[in-house]
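Problem: given the chain below (164 residues), write out its structure.
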Amino acid sequence: MLNTMSAHDQLRALLDREGAVYRVLEHEPEGRTEFITKIRGNRIEQAIKSMVVQVRMSKKENRYYLANVPGDCRVDFDAIKSHFNAVGIGMAPREKAEALTGCVIGSIPPFSFSDQLGVLADPLIKENEEVVFNAGSLEKSIFMRMEDYFRIANPQVVKIALRG
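Solution.
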């Protein structure tokens, strides 16, 4: 059966089911970390920035991962390539990223609802007691305990962030 719930509603249902402590903040539409951070009033390193990457395992096999890093970092493509011993790596095409996440670019939360999309998280995210991220909508963000994020999203923890 096709899930007709929005990504935001799926996320809230998951967090409620798993007993997460969180709050939703509604705000003007914005998906760029440096701008949404000012609107939400959080520290930029508290934000989780989520990007869909395409990992080329061979000429015929591509895998997709949701790469999550602190808001003040960039994704280290070489680290992901090395971690998977991949042939190549890059950003997933916009259409593929949006299809896998059910979200427009800029609103992707650090959770996957697709068995074709693995989740990676940099350990620097653990430096914050509370994390914040776009919640499947450009108009909604979620603040939650970092421990709940790692418990519920259950990402592979891999050093994939570059600061500076």
